[in-house]
Amino acid sequence: MFSKQRRRVFWDWSDSELHTRCHDGLLPGGGQIDVQVRTSRTGAVQLFVGAYDGTGCMLFEEYYKERPGESMSAALAFGVARAMILTATKLSPIPSTARLGIYRNV
After folding, report:
1. How many CB atoms lie within 10 A of CB 71?
2. pLDDT one-digit tens code per residue, 34-79
3. Type and span of the H or E element at 64
4. Sequence-ordered list of residues with C-beta below 8 angstroms from that of 52, at least 6 positions apart, any chain
5. The model's pTM
6. Rounded to an integer, what distance in angstroms lies between the CA atom of residue 69 and that of residue 25?
7. Which of 6, 36, 96, 104 satisfies CB 3.0 to 4.6 Å to 60 for a cystine?
């Protein structure tokens, strides 16, 4: 296993005082996805989605400040599906999420 080279999006999103649920998954070629969901201090469900190659370099990281109307479980499932689609198809995140803090290593 490698050490993930976190970028600004993850550190902007992280807050060690909040309870977080995580899903880690392995990608073909040795990479990894990292999906984390939490409830903010104001009660909003928040989501982080990241993917890293086999050496730990970031492929992309994005976060959602809120997932209105979704439970933590639903948001986590959305994040896992999003990570798998972005890594499998090598798509760029959609423009409407640019305001949410997305970085992609091209």
Report:
1. 12
2. 999 999 999 999 999 999 888 888 888 888 989 999 999 999 999 9
3. strand 58-64
4. 2, 4, 5, 31, 32, 33, 34, 58, 59
5. 0.78
6. 26
7. 104
